[in-house]
Design goal:
Layout lengths: L1 H9 L16 H4 L6 E3 L10 H12 L4 H12 L4 E3 L3 E8 L2 E7 L5 E7 L3 E5 L2 E4 L5 E3 L8
Antiparallel strand pairs: 1-2, 2-3, 3-4, 4-5, 6-7, 7-8
Helix pairs in contact: 3-4
């Protein structure tokens, strides 16, 4: 009985499959949510230009609170292209090979950015976001999925 018990202890349980990749951190961590992005459906968005975003920025700079800025920008530009973590609002105007972004954060700060259309920004070690569409993709280019 002692020999059988020692053999059972030496064999790993089927659920304890060991990964052969020494850099793997496990699927649970890799699939963890880093940023919650609520993308507005395309049919609910207005077409915008760079000038529309600039005019919206001038309008929002005159507001006193975040809520007032959201209200004015939504009236001027329509719904944001996406909302990050229920707070940060992003309006995007596509212009051929680049896109222009107006970003309003909860502290009232406004940023105007221009990015090439295919730009991906890292959110964490295991996820990235398209700078023009807001789509979040799990994994890193070149990294094998388990």
């Amino acid at each position: 009985w002692a020999e059988k018990k020692s053999r059972d202890e030496e064999l790993p349980a089927p659920a304890e499959r060991r990964d052969t990749d020494p850099l793997s951190v496990g699927a649970a961590i890799e699939s963890g949510t880093t940023t919650k992005v609520e993308i507005t459906p395309a049919r609910e968005l207005r077409t915008k230009t760079r000038r529309d975003l600039d005019d919206g920025m001038k309008l929002a700079e005159k507001t006193a609170t975040f809520e007032e800025a959201v209200q004015k920008l939504t009236a001027r530009l329509g719904k944001p292209t996406w909302i990050e973590n229920g707070k940060k609002r992003v309006w995007v105007a596509n212009d051929g090979q680049q896109c222009h972004r107006l970003v309003l954060d909860t502290d009232g700060s406004l940023e105007a950015e221009t990015e090439p259309t295919g730009t991906w920004k890292m959110l964490s070690g295991f996820s990235q976001q398209n700078a023009c569409s807001g789509i979040v993709q799990r994994g890193v280019p070149g990294m094998q999925s388990p």
